[in-house]
Amino acid sequence: MDDTVTRHQRGIPPRANEKPVNLALQGGGAHGAFAWGVLEKLLEDGRLTIEAMSATSAGAMNAVVAAYGLSIGGPDGAREKLEEFWRQISNAGQLYSPVRSFPWEHWLQGSGPNSEFSPAFFVFQAMTRVFSPYQINPFNFNPLKDVLTEVIDFDRLAKCNKAPRLFLSATNVRTGKIKLFGNEAVSADVVLASACLPYLFHAVEIDGEHYWDGGFMGNPAIFPLIYNRGSKDVILVHINPIERKRLPRTAAEIFNRMNEISFNSSLMREMRAVAFVTKLIDDNVLDRDKYSRMFIHSIRDDAAMAELGVATKLNPDWDFLCRLRDSGRAKAAEWLDGNLDKVGQSSTVDLAGAFL
Questions:
Q1: How confident is the model at residue 219, as a pLDDT?
Q2: How far does Cα 152 stand from its chain's mean position?
Q3: Residues 6+ apart with CB under 8 A from 282
Q4: Which candidate, 68, 130, 218, 232, has a CA 20 to 30 Å from the CA of 288?
Q5: What SS3 state is found at 49?
């Protein structure tokens, strides 16, 4: 039997008062601390059990840390591991950050993306447009690898049957196709591949192929959760705002919005496909005995995220990470209060309104 098959997939009913769900975790650098807060609240609440997680970049980091914590200590173990991971991220970032002289407090006080970047950030951004990471960082130093290997025993995670099913996305540089890594293949290099921004780090080589950030092709990928036998409920944890009310006009705003649209594009396409199939089922065009609907849910805070520019995705400040965590906790609590009863029964997202 596949060691990564979950209780629900083996036909074992969830524990009393638990509803099985899948999670889809977006990437977004330091903004992934918002998803840390969401995970922490869902684990603390205890009324949902995580069957599987599809995740990309920072989402992949949250997913593997939570999965490892669940495998060794249940929900409490997962919450402890998540806090340990983000603390170490902050500590490592204070020692090594390409934009550590950027005036973060100016952003955190509400200036938002209309404020001017510091000279340090302009220099950093210009360097990444002219020089590749093979020139800027010839020894391929990446402090994230040390953090991951200190927090997670990857060999144990790969073999543990108590961990949720994982689908971690990376982009094959040679073919341009998405690559999904499951529990049996999970490693620090796999997580780094999922989070490999090509202007910052060398492409990550795994089994003779090279990979960049999974967000280019799946942020996160939904289809493995559809194909995976198990729960039909998918909770999307958004990091990148889908909508912005104001037209971007400055160079910083335009760059930021281009980044958001690019890293939401694959998700938008997949959700349109889900909406299309759902309509075919509702119209009795597809046989309900052969095709089952997915129930889509969403936890997001576009208003708060829209106040943060792309530069803050590199901010390792602990207070900043905790603010995002607290925002995630609040939004998860709000979602639980209004939508828990609908899990297993219906979607809580208007697919047409949100994605078409």
A1: 87
A2: 18
A3: none
A4: 218
A5: strand
Name residues whose C-beta falls within 8 Å of residue 324's C-beta, 6 or more positions apart in sequence: 30, 31, 33, 34, 36, 37
Give the span between the Cα atoms of 38 and 40, in whole angstroms: 5
Closest CA to 53 of 239, 288, 301, 233: 233
Predicted local distance difference test score (pLDDT) of residue 119 = 52
Q: In which residue ranges of the chain is pLDDT below 70?
A: 1-17, 94-131
Q: What is the reported pLDDT for 93?
A: 74
In the chain, the amino acid numbered 323 is: R
CA distance 44 to 152: 21
Please give the pLDDT value at position 338.
96
* Assigned token pair, 222: 């939904």
Could you give the CA distance from residue 170 to residue 243 in angstroms, rounded to a whole number? 25
Cβ atoms 185, 99 nearer than 8 A: no
Q: What DSSP string describes 97-117?
A: -TTTTS-HHHIIIIIGGGSPP
Give Cα separations from 97 to 168, 200, 313, 350 (angstroms): 25, 11, 11, 40
What does the pLDDT look like over 197-222, one tens digit per residue? 888 889 999 999 999 999 889 889 99
Give the per-residue pLDDT at 96.
53
Taken as a whole, the chain contains a residue count of 356
- The answer to whether 113 touches 252, Cβ cutoff 8 Å, is yes
Please tell me the distance from the alpha carbon of residue 171 to that of residue 24, in angstroms, as a whole number: 17
180: nearest Cα among 18, 281, 54, 325: 54
